[in-house]
UniProtKB/TrEMBL annotation:
GO MF term list: iduronate-2-sulfatase activity; metal ion binding
Record organism: Urocynchramus pylzowi
Cellular component per GO, a single term: lysosomal lumen
Protein name, as recorded: Iduronate 2-sulfatase
Pfam families assigned to the protein according to its UniProt record, in alphabetical order: Sulfatase (PF00884)
UniProt keyword list: Calcium, Disulfide bond, Glycoprotein, Hydrolase, Lysosome, Metal-binding, Signal, Zymogen
Length: 515
């Protein structure tokens, strides 16, 4: 009778996690999940901004097919009536439930989080969400501000809580309802942090003394970075504490001590998130559901923490496009779980010592657009067909391909030819590639470079990441007919991963581009 699915999606989380080799972060609960999961260390979003990325992986189509590069259109009206991953599970007999931020709210999900197409009951939004951008951060002056760096006393917050705490409570409630009614479920839980503002319970700062926090390894704007590639982090500049620093636009650097504070608060927000994940997974155990529930953990995209002199997302660099991605599949990534056994005991980040290694790890380059077919296959549903070249009229198809065939390969043994895959159309002999893209309104950074509206897009940066390199071309784009002209290249970037893992030395102009 099939597995349940618990789909956890985090806003703006890059892989600063113990299970991804980060030495500073305290993330024991996510690491514990990884220790029972297949972990992908090279997973990439298709566009490094919330709404386009979410609509892309929830429909299994790339941004050029959803035609959503900003926040202002609903794909069913504007592109095609594409089925979503939760809709497909719903049509296959699952109760589908949305808690917190799954679809980006607003017009891009029809002001309804795509209910009733995608969800069995109306999506839950935490009531504290409406206070996210209120003045709730106490400044050095004792007054309240809308700061970027915002540790808070939760008891002083409106309602005495924070959105992610409420989402965890609701998700746990729904797990217990599902256990009682014995219905097969697809429960999506979307966490807000570490999205800005970096507002989290202040006790998490204790985990990260400022003297332990370094700057990014490359906190300067690279000499050969094309101006079109740079994102000027406007959303950061608009916060009260950053505004007060009067940094010059677009390339002025934030003061070192403030850079450390942002990095410290990002880490603190990740540990606060880790506690929520720990409580949620421990409740999955309590409900006796760990032995028949697939758990997926990922993020909509990454977030720059000062690398290349950049902050926030809005770029094609790995720091903005790379995401954590792991799958817990009972009986597949772990030996079968006996009824009542604890798989996910809650771990307190303030006292837990020691890391855990992932159950299995793949360095294969994979894309979030592959989530839909992968989850369908893991749950034993028919895998949606591959989309034809043009698929605006096709209701159910996917532009990703299932990555389940990577699961049973231990990294130790040499991978054989076709990796045991029968369907030759879906199996490539060559190395996999992840595609990302980002629109710009102009060749030089300006006020709307991070988030241009569709009508203002003039250039599209198409980027491909293989295990060896990241290659990006910024080409002419016409928003009226959604066409990219690859004959008209504004700029290019090429980074070789082996000797330039941080993507600081653009060698595009040192090479010929016949390929």
């Amino acid at each position: 009778d099939g597995m349940n699915v618990l789909f956890i999606i985090v806003d703006d989380l890059r892989p600063v996690l113990g299970c991804y080799g980060d030495k500073l972060v305290k993330s024991p609960n996510i690491d514990q999940l990884a220790s029972q999961s297949m972990v992908f260390s090279n997973a990439y979003a298709q566009q490094a901004v919330c709404a386009p990325s979410r609509v892309s992986f929830l429909t299994g189509r790339r941004p050029d097919t959803t035609r959503l590069y900003d926040f202002y259109s609903y794909w069913r009206v504007h592109a095609g009536n594409y089925s979503t991953m939760p809709q497909y599970f719903k049509e296959n007999g699952y109760v589908t439930l949305s808690v917190g931020k799954i679809f980006h709210p607003g017009v891009s999900s029809n002001y309804s989080d795509d209910y009733p197409y995608s969800w069995s009951i109306p999506p839950f939004h935490p009531s504290a969400e409406k206070h996210e951008n209120d003045k709730t951060c106490r400044g050095k002056d004792g007054k309240l501000h809308t700061n970027l760096v915002c540790p808070v006393n939760v008891t002083e917050m409106p309602g005495g809580t924070l959105p992610d705490i409420q989402s965890t409570e609701e998700a746990i409630h729904l797990l217990n309802v599902m256990k009682t009614t014995r219905q097969k479920f697809f429960l999506a839980v979307g966490y807000h942090k570490p999205h800005i503002p970096l507002r989290y319970p202040q006790e998490f700062l204790k985990l990260y003394p400022l003297e332990n926090i370094t700057l990014a390894p490359d906190p300067w704007v690279p000499k050969k970075l094309p101006s079109v590639a740079y994102n000027p982090w406007m959303d950061i500049r608009q916060r009260d504490d950053v505004k007060a620093l009067n940094v010059s636009f677009p390339y002025g650097a934030l003061p070192d001590d403030f850079q450390r504070q942002i990095r410290q608060s990002y880490y603190a927000a990740v540990s606060y998130l880790d506690v929520q994940i720990g409580l949620l997974l421990s409740a999955l155990d309590d409900a006796g559901l760990s032995n028949n529930t697939i758990v997926v953990f990922t993020a909509d995209h990454g977030w720059s923490l000062g690398e290349h002199g950049e902050w926030a997302k809005y770029s094609n660099f790995d720091v903005a496009t790379r995401v954590p991605l792991m799958f817990y599949v009972p009986g597949m990534t772990t030996s079968p779980v006996s009824q009542g056994a604890r798989v996910f005991p809650y771990l307190n980040p303030f006292s837990h010592i020691g890391g855990s290694v992932p159950q299995g790890q793949s360095k294969k380059v994979v894309e979030l657009v592959s989530l839909f077919p992968t989850l369908a296959e893991l749950a034993g549903l028919q895998v949606p067909p591959a989309c034809p070249e043009v698929s605006f009229g096709v209701v159910l198809c996917t532009e990703g391909s299932s990555i389940v065939h990577y699961f049973n390969i231990s990294e130790g043994k040499v991978e054989q030819g076709k990796e045991g895959c029968d369907d030759t159309d879906r199996c490539f002999y060559e190395e996999p590639v992840a595609f990302s893209q980002y629109p710009r309104p102009a060749d030089v950074p300006q006020w709307n470079s991070d988030k241009p509206k569709l009508k203002d897009i003039r250039i599209m940066g198409y980027s491909m990441r293989t295990i060896d390199y990241r290659y990006t071309v910024w080409v002419q784009f016409d928003p009226n007919n959604f066409s990219a002209n690859f004959e008209h290249v504004h700029a290019g970037e090429l980074y070789m991963m082996e000797n330039d893992p941080n993507q600081d030395y653009n060698i595009y102009n040192n090479t010929s581009h016949g390929w």
